[in-house]
Write a structure and sequence with these properties.
Number of strands: 9
Distance between the termini: 83 Å
């Protein structure tokens, strides 16, 4: 049996929508005969791919090549098996069971996707860049992103990848039309409407012990294949899912690293397609593709009598007496799960905080209740007081373009954490004479 026959048979099985009976019927039409080995093969195919991400064509071909019973049938009937009818894989939505309840747009062909994104077919392929040609570019005008290298306080560099105007508009369309309609895991609190650093920290207030973990290189740790797999899970056909994932990921050109002291591993992390830190779709995609990680860590925390929340790459676990006795061993198990899911824990930032010290998360103290740092609140109160007495210009030492919005944002952040303690700050802000 030739590879062409195997490829066509794979597409006929995929057309059966992971149902053994439907896959068998399609395979019989493709080969023209109800071979005895076809029904068991269809059953094994359905068992292998009925749960999880919708498979790629190459995955089904690999399954056929590795199936022992099918290999024996190929050897026995190699001259008798041929293609009677080509049944192409249908271009229709095939979501997993959970995704059927979400109000997602039906995009079943590349033409539908081009129309939905208001792009021509050429522009669609150019933005998706499935062949990662952008990595080889040496002309910034042809690139889709602006790049900015920022040093980390702990050493190393962080690369900001800011999409240019046209690509950002396309990504925002995907964010609003697809990603924002998918519910995130209850433990995820970053970049989600109605959740914040306050809701991230609140479950850990007043606990005997608090464990904080931090991931290294959070956004680049998500390869482009995981983004494409997410869109296939939502039901989009493989060509559509590949381009949606391509638009939301990036491969950094070599020229960006010229004159930079970044190590080889960091460069390789950014060379492969990944979620760019700076794209509007990256936070939502990171939360959704980390669903399995959140499920495993939430289950681990529950088994230890602890609470678990995550804000982007910051993970927090807390509990009382039983958890306090096993927290060191628990931290090792949590780091192992993260490693299995493709993330690396920055052990230098791991903290175990008991009630005798200040327990804090994302700039919030949680020893007894959720409250901001006293130092930060007092500093902001002093700035607002001087703004009232001497005018806001006297306090804008960093030449912030919109100092009023800057101060209002800081006051709003304090109100979000502890409205009672922020009441005086709001009074002072409203007393400032901005004229």
């Amino acid at each position: 049996m030739t590879r062409i026959v195997i490829s066509v048979l794979a597409r006929s099985l995929m057309a059966g929508e992971q149902s053994a009976q439907a896959a068998y019927a399609r395979a019989v039409r493709t080969l023209g005969r109800p071979w005895r080995w076809l029904r068991p093969l269809a059953g094994r195919y359905a068992e292998a791919f009925s749960v999880g991400v919708r498979p790629r064509h190459r995955d089904v071909v690999r399954f056929l090549l590795e199936d022992g019973e099918f290999a024996r049938a190929r050897r026995k009937y190699r001259h008798a098996i041929s293609i009677a009818e080509c049944i192409p894989e249908p271009s229709r939505m095939q979501p997993v069971a959970a995704a059927t309840a979400w109000d997602l747009p039906r995009i079943e062909t590349l033409g539908h996707l081009s129309d939905w994104l208001c792009l021509s077919p050429g522009e669609l392929d150019w933005f998706a860049d499935l062949k990662a040609l952008g990595y080889k570019l040496s002309q910034p005008k042809l690139e889709h992103y602006h790049y900015r290298l920022l040093p980390k306080r702990s050493g190393g560099v962080r690369l900001m990848e800011i999409p240019k105007r046209n690509l950002k508009a396309v990504q925002r369309r995907i964010l609003a039309g697809i990603l924002d309609r998918i519910p995130a895991h209850p433990a995820a609190h970053g970049f989600i409407t109605g959740r914040s650093i306050a809701t991230f920290a609140a479950p850990h207030a007043g606990k005997q012990v608090l464990l904080r973990l931090d991931f290294q290189d959070f956004f680049p740790a998500f390869p482009g294949a995981r983004a494409q797999a997410l869109f296939r899970t939502l039901g989009y056909p493989e060509p559509v899912a590949d381009r949606l994932g391509g638009i939301c990921t990036n491969s950094v050109p070599r020229r960006v690293w010229s004159g930079c002291s970044a190590d080889f591993e960091t460069r390789m992390l950014y060379v492969r397609p990944h979620l760019p830190q700076g794209a509007p779709t990256s936070p939502a995609l990171a939360n959704l593709t980390a669903w399995h990680l959140d499920c495993r860590l939430a289950a681990l925390a529950e088994s230890a009598g602890a609470s678990y929340t995550r804000y982007a790459d910051d993970l927090a676990f807390s509990g009382d007496r039983d958890f306090a006795r096993a927290v060191e061993r628990f931290a090792v198990h949590a780091a192992a799960i993260a490693l299995e899911e493709g993330f690396s824990v920055n052990h230098q930032k791991t903290r175990i905080m008991r009630q005798g010290v200040r327990q804090h998360l994302a700039g919030i103290v949680v020893n007894a209740s959720v409250s901001p740092y006293r130092r930060d609140r007092k500093l902001l109160e002093a700035i607002l007081t001087n703004c009232v007495r001497h005018g806001p210009a006297s306090q804008n030492r960093a030449a912030v373009p919109d100092f009023r919005a800057h101060l209002e944002g800081r006051v709003g952040c304090m109100e979000m954490i502890d409205r009672e303690k922020a009441r005086r700050l709001r009074t002072l802000f409203e007393a400032i004479n901005w004229e």
